[in-house]
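Workshop exercise sheet. Pairs work together: one partner reads the sequence aloud, the other fills in the structure field after running the prediction. Swap roles for the next sheet.
Pair: D.N. / O.F.
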Amino acid sequence: MISKKWIITMLLILALTGCSNLEKQGDVVGGISDKEALKVAKEKAEITKVKSEELKNLEVDLDKFFDDPKLMEKSPCPVYWIIKGVDKKGKSLTVYVNYKKPDIYYIKNKK
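Structure field:
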């Protein structure tokens, strides 16, 4: 039978050591951070003012969503950072940056 002393010792060890490092959680799951996605949006879409940003699993047919017939071949996963903002000309736009590969991004202008 397991003694109370052993159980208390194990609980203290688990409580004091923790299970993860919050700064390295992005590395564990293998995706880009919001800061990296924002950098892509600023460089590629020239966003000057960010209104919102969110990480979202796009549960739709990506080919129809982005009007790109080869999207499924390029995209490693349907999870995207969605950054809404305004460019330097004052146009509202939305930038979709792939969570696994930041070189896969899409820019949609609001009409």
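Discussion prompt: Helices lie at 4-17, 25-29, 34-44, 62-66, 71-74. What would you look at next?
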